[in-house]
Amino acid sequence: MKIRLFPLILVFSICTATTFAQHDKKEVNNEETKHETGHGNEDHEEFFHHFIGLSIGHSHISSGISNGETKWLALPSFGISYVYAFNTRWAIGLHNEVIVEDFVVQSSRLEPSTVRSGSDGDIAVIERGRPIAVAVVGIYKIHKHIGLLAGGGMEFSEHEDFGLVKIGAEFPYHFAPGWEMFGTLSADFKIDAYNSFSFGFGVARLF
Q1: Residue 126: CB partners within 8 Å, gap ≥ 6?
Q2: Using CB atoms within 10 A of its CB, is residue 67 exposed (0-12), middle (13-18) or buried (19+)?
Q3: Which of 15, 64, 103, 137 could join 151 via S-S bond, C-beta 3.0 to 4.6 A?
């Protein structure tokens, strides 16, 4: 009797093992597909490769000059950005920011382009006329609502152009299919010139 039951037990064991193996393989394939296509989020958000955003904000400069005195400047700005996402973690983007006012900052260079008289004597300054900052950045998402970015580029103005290094973070939130709103926080280090940081809010189209 035991000899007759052995083949049945063996066949049942093989079938059971095969079933579990196929189930595990299916789960692994589903997880890989979710990771590659971006459908792995709990809310089943669709993954998009392209991002075009428009934002408004303020740029802050601690070394501004107003009426011959050093003053903290808060200047209105707007930004236009394009991002290409390789996957759910990595992306590359082109960030463009325009400060919509003329301003003057204190210079730390040995040979400043302009010197102005102030209450504390002559001040070496750098003049900026509605500068446009253009930077290529790499983006890494540590969370679906948090992306860290770093890169470099140039700031262009009618007076003088400067190289810049940009670091920052983005905070996206999907509110409709193909649309997201986002917050931005970044710092720009203008080489041999001045530094600034900015924050803003925007809306983006995803496709």
Answers
A1: 104, 105, 106, 107, 109, 112, 113, 114, 159, 160, 193, 194
A2: exposed
A3: 137
